[in-house]
Write a structure and sequence with these properties.
CATH class of one domain in chain B: Alpha Beta
Helix content of chain A: over 70%
Number of helices of chain B: 8
Radius of gyration of chain B: 18 Å
Structural class of chain B: alpha/beta
Strand order of the largest sheet of chain B: 6-7-8-3-9-10
Largest interface: A-B, 26 and 27 residues
Number of strands of chain A: 0
Order of helices and strands of chain A: HHHHHHHHHHHH
Low-confidence stretches of chain B: 225-235
CATH architecture of chain A: Orthogonal Bundle
Largest sheet of chain B: 6 strands, mixed
Shape of chain A: globular
CATH topology of chain A: ABC transporter involved in vitamin B12 uptake, BtuC
Strand content of chain B: 15-25%
Number of strands of chain B: 10
Oligomer: heterodimer
Number of helices of chain A: 12
Low-confidence stretches of chain A: none
CATH architecture of one domain in chain B: 3-Layer(aba) Sandwich
Number of domains of chain A: 1
Distance between the termini of chain A: 43 Å
Chain lengths: ~280, ~240
């Protein structure tokens, strides 16, 4: 009864809705992230988002007397998209592997983020670094929720549209190319969509925890799936279940929600490992 | 046609014609440009000079008329998929999220054609090299191609499996009058299963009927050169 009352509160409803939206798109993206061996991508993009938010805060502090510059997210989105395109480009056009490319952008973004934040006078700083790193799903405002729902719907629709070609390219890039699939364009699109989801979600659940949404449900799903479509569905289901369970448990036990969601995902991973298909 | 990778000429002035109903075996040492030639025919590589015409169209224009069987070593075994999905991908030219009843029947018939009906619902990760080869062949044949391209089809397949493979290809060719092009390291297979042989080492060292082309002289000429000698570098 107490739990039902809790979910009648607007902030809990926003947390639930936002969390579910992230769980669905991250679950779908996570299938490809895991299957393409890009587990580090979520971390890299989340830290690029940190650099972008810091740059946004810097712009807001020094140039944003009024107008769009006061919104750090409006700078963080293109910044993170640019970083994702950079990672995809290095992976595509050089001999460097994904993790090396991601590692370079990861380090540079964090360095830039720390640099920007260090020069902002505290009284003009519009972002809370602790909040950005670890997030607070319960603090999502109506405007944040609107952005998250819009981006999630857009990414979800695009992913469904390209799924058959993206899956084909993930199975065997050369085979897909022989059948006319533009695998390069799809890879850039995948990186851009992941960047978009990560940057708008990071402010809600934190950059440290966002990476987990892209990896753990997908990895759990991989353990028990016979096909890629089943893996996609399980990945979404694990993300949704861990979000709901994490919210409920954190409310009942009074512990941080983001951590509880990730630990629930880890518990589901252990269950999946126990039932894995050999 | 000629193909260049950086400073290295991968193929130089290679030219030949193949008719429907003919089988071409491409032989040559490692690094001779055999896979490059196949990739040009698939439209994956654009030649520096010249072009590949497949049934009068530039390579890569009409994927449906070509059935391609890649080397098995490129396959990622961790991908969660069944033989059914792989075969259906050959008909759809994309990965199937859901397989219709008609597609399932077509895939079963294609697998039946290669003697592997029982593999329909098996996971790819659990298949042997020979079984995978049959599934890939069914995937290529489901679209009833006019040209079948095979990159080292006998690799990882035992002697009996190899014998079956050539029987299957010859059976398909008899029914459809398709052209077949295969890369092989097995000169005996080239001699007995191909109507034409191309001896390749960056250049064509011989093209024609096996008994004419597989001479000691042309083979020595092709295999006597190695792919990384300095005289192949473009200055």
């Amino acid at each position: 009864m107490e739990l039902l009352e809790a979910f009648s509160l607007p902030f809990m409803q926003r947390a639930l809705l936002g969390g579910l939206a992230i769980a669905v798109v991250a679950g779908l993206l996570g299938t490809f992230v895991v299957q393409r061996g890009l587990a580090f991508l979520g971390d890299g993009l989340a830290h690029a988002a940190f650099g972008g938010m810091a740059l946004g805060a810097f712009a807001a502090a020094f140039f944003g007397t009024s107008g769009w510059l006061e919104q750090p997210l409006l700078i963080a989105v293109p910044f993170t998209l640019l970083a994702s395109m950079g990672i995809a480009f290095v992976r595509d056009r050089t001999v460097l592997s994904s993790d090396v490319a991601i590692g370079v952008f990861f380090a540079v973004s964090v360095a830039l983020g720390v640099l920007f934040i260090s020069v902002i006078p505290p009284e003009r700083n519009v972002i809370d670094v602790w909040h950005l790193l670890f997030g607070s799903i319960l603090a999502v405002g109506p405007a944040d929720l609107g952005i998250i729902l819009t981006v999630s719907a857009l990414v979800f629709a695009l992913l469904l549209f390209v799924w058959p070609r993206l899956a084909y390219a993930t199975f065997d890039e050369e085979l897909a190319r022989t059948d006319g699939v533009n695998t390069r364009r799809l890879e850039y699109l995948l990186f851009a969509l992941a960047a978009l989801v990560v940057v708008v979600s990071a402010q809600m659940i934190g950059i440290v925890l966002m990476a987990a949404y892209l990896v753990i449900p997908g990895a759990s799903a991989r353990l028990i799936s016979r096909s890629l479509v089943a893996m996609s569905m399980w990945s979404v289901l694990f993300g949704v279940a861990s979000t709901v369970a994490g919210l409920v448990i954190s409310y009942l036990v009074d512990v941080p929600t983001g951590s509880t969601i990730i630990l629930t995902q880890a518990a589901l991973f252990l269950v999946a490992a126990a039932f894995r298909k050999r | 046609m000629s193909v260049r990778f950086g400073k290295v000429m991968a193929l130089q002035d290679v030219s030949f014609d193949l008719e429907r109903g003919q089988t071409l075996a491409i032989v040559g040492p490692n690094g001779a440009g055999k896979s490059t030639l196949i990739r040009v025919a698939l439209g994956l590589i654009r030649p520096l000079r010249g072009h590949a015409l497949i049934f009068g169209q530039y390579a890569g224009v009409d994927a449906r008329r070509i059935g391609y069987v890649p080397q098995l070593k490129t396959f990622d075994r961790s991908f969660p998929a069944t033989a059914l999905e792989l075969v259906v991908s050959g008909a759809r030219l994309q990965w199937p999220a859901r397989v219709t009843r008609r597609e399932r029947e077509a895939a079963a018939a294609a697998l039946e054609q290669v003697g592997a009906r029982g593999l329909l619902n098996r996971r790819l990760a659990g298949l042997s090299g020979g079984e995978l080869q049959r599934v890939y062949l069914a995937r290529a044949l489901i679209r009833q191609p006019d040209l079948v391209l095979l990159d080292e089809p006998a690799t990882g397949v035992d002697f009996l499996g190899e014998h079956d493979l050539y029987d299957l290809l010859e059976g398909y060719q008899e029914r459809t009058n398709a052209a077949i092009v295969m890369i092989t390291h097995d000169l005996t297979a080239a001699r007995y299963h191909a109507s034409h042989v191309l001896v390749l080492n960056r250049q064509a060292h011989g093209f024609g009927a096996p008994e004419e082309v597989l001479s000691e002289e042309s083979l020595k000429e092709a295999y006597g050169h190695h792919g990384h000698q300095h005289d192949w570098l473009v200055n």
